[in-house]
Amino acid sequence: MLTNILPPPGLPRRLATQSAVLGIGSGTYLTGSVVFFTLYVGLTPVQVGLGFSLAGLIGLVGSLPLGHLADRIGGQRAWVIGALAGAAAFAAYPLTGGFWTFLLVIAAEATADTLANSGRMVYIAAAVGREDRVRTMAFNRAYLNVGFTVGSGLGAAALALDSRAGLLTLVLANAVGLVLNAIFVARMPAVAPLEETAGPRPSPWGVLRDHPYTALAGLFGVLWLNATLFGEVIPLWAITMTDAPKPLLGALFALNTVMAVALQVRATRGADSIAGSARLLRWAALASVVACPVVGLTSSTHGWVTIGLLALSIVLVTTTELWLSGAQWFLQTEVPPPDQRGAYMGASKSVGGVPKTLGPAALTFLAIHTGAWGWWLIAAIFVLAAVAAGPIVAWVARTPRNGYLIQPATIQR
């Protein structure tokens, strides 16, 4: 039982601890970020929304070049630089005096966060052996959720103070957390520079010409629409189209967190091969297929039946999240040539971000404005993803990349 709760000693445990520290800081901040910007900085909700949209755009466009930068300077160095730059940006938030300085700081913070995330993935892929890599990432995700839960409680306590000092605590706690994060990462074991693949150094933009991989990235983007269902569409549906009590939403979010903490490691079993990852992608898609009509039924049910069906839908979309995460961790670290992991993972985030950007508006329209039958159309999207998963993964696996080819059981150069 402890093997699913406590990471193995050594680097995996240190990485999990780092994730928990990061989660505490980010959870504290995110709990009241909108309140901070509106009440402390004095921005309007529209201005705050525009800033968050700019941050999302930077993550979408900047992931590939910043991932390539992480390949060049090393994952650990990129991770530390990104964390320190992010800490500086959060420390500067209380100094912003208006909309344009807010945009400048949030752009700097989004760039730093993108670089840090790229560095983290590059470092873990290089520092942790293939047989332990996905399991280590699963522990990291679980411990991040634990930290985020603790941070959310601290953030709620800071908001309860109903003072400028409490609001200031929100951002400064995250700045401190990022500094501690940088210290943790800097003290982790160094990784020897990776041997570059044969031939001339490829352009980072050449990754986009790897059509099998971009197809896989698009598949990831479609499957991650389940996060939009969980975070936006299902709560909106529950409030506007069912008789479920509004406090139920908090319990549904808590259910997702508990499952992510307790089951993420166990859910990655099988994500250690091409065939196993393809199978998890299919299972992930089918879980969301089932979730959609379950949600649709709640428009015609009442009381505890509605509550039970909504809880079941959250279990299903969370299961999608757990299986999808394991498969994505394996494929994003094993498919690219080792010296191009950052660029490939950045391309995956950029390409996969397109469906996730369009998803909220499209899925909300299908679910809310068409009636319950719109959920069947959403389910059809995931059916197509389930059908496409096997052929796309097989296409990726049989395609060499600059002399590098992944095999079902072994990696060959």
Automatic annotation (TrEMBL):
As for membrane topology, the entry says: Multi-pass membrane protein
**Coiled-coil intervals:** none
Matching entries from Pfam families are given as: MFS_1
* Signal peptide feature range: none
Which cell locations does it reside in?
Cell membrane
Q: Which SUPFAM superfamilies match?
A: MFS general substrate transporter
Which UniProt key words apply to this protein? Answer: Cell membrane, Membrane, Transmembrane, Transmembrane helix, Transport
TM annotation in the entry: 20-42, 48-66, 78-108, 142-161, 168-192, 212-236, 248-268, 280-297, 304-324, 373-397
Matching entries from InterPro entries are given as: MFS, MFS_trans_sf, MFS_Transporters
Q: Which domain of life is it from?
A: Bacteria
This chain's protein is named MFS transporter
Which source organism does the UniProt entry give?
Answer: Paractinoplanes pyxinae
Q: Upper taxonomic classification of the species?
A: Bacteria, Bacillati, Actinomycetota, Actinomycetes, Micromonosporales
